[in-house]
């Protein structure tokens, strides 16, 4: 195994740990893990979990995607959200969200999706979302 491949695997593992513990490093990580604008609804969870690289090295047990325009999600941290506490903001509007839960075993990750319409609570840094704190 080359040193490059070993370093790459270590970087992927560290990234997975950050996602696992619910800490998004920045807006791009948050957007990758949680924001989606309409895509193929028939295979939504499996497609998105694989496309967003949330099945590399292990099956992420669950993830929630916000199925809406990213500008509307960003607005929660700016002028369309209500301050909850610390850096947390609650959305005033409801979003379509897709909750994806793994039913398979690695490397055969298999996700089942459940669509919901809910408000969200976001962790914001510099008026940009970086963490999906919970569904309200």
Automatic annotation (TrEMBL):
Pfam families named in the record: RnaseA (PF00074)
Compartments where found: Secreted
GO cellular component, one term: extracellular region
Domain Ribonuclease A-domain: 23-136
InterPro entries recorded: RNaseA (IPR001427), RNaseA-like_dom_sf (IPR036816), RNaseA_domain (IPR023412)
Keyword set, alphabetical order: Disulfide bond, Secreted, Signal
Keyword Calcium: no
GO molecular function annotations of the record: nucleic acid binding; RNA nuclease activity
Main localization (coarse): secreted
Signal peptide: 1-24
A biological process from GO: defense response to Gram-positive bacterium
Similarity remark: Belongs to the pancreatic ribonuclease family.
Record protein name field: Ribonuclease A-domain domain-containing protein
């Amino acid at each position: 195994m080359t040193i490059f491949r070993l370093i790459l695997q270590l970087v992927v593992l560290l990234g997975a740990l950050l996602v696992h513990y619910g800490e998004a490093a920045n807006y791009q990580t948050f957007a990758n893990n949680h924001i989606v604008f309409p895509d193929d609804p028939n295979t939504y969870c499996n497609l998105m979990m694989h496309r967003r690289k949330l099945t590399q090295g292990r099956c992420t047990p669950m993830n929630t995607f916000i199925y809406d325009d990213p500008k509307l999600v960003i607005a929660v941290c700016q002028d369309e959200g209500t301050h909850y506490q610390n850096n947390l903001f609650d959305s005033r509007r409801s979003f379509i969200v897709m909750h994806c839960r793994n039913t398979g075993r690695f490397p055969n990750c298999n996700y089942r999706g459940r669509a919901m319409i809910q408000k969200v609570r976001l962790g914001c840094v510099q008026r940009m979302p970086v963490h999906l704190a919970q569904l309200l």
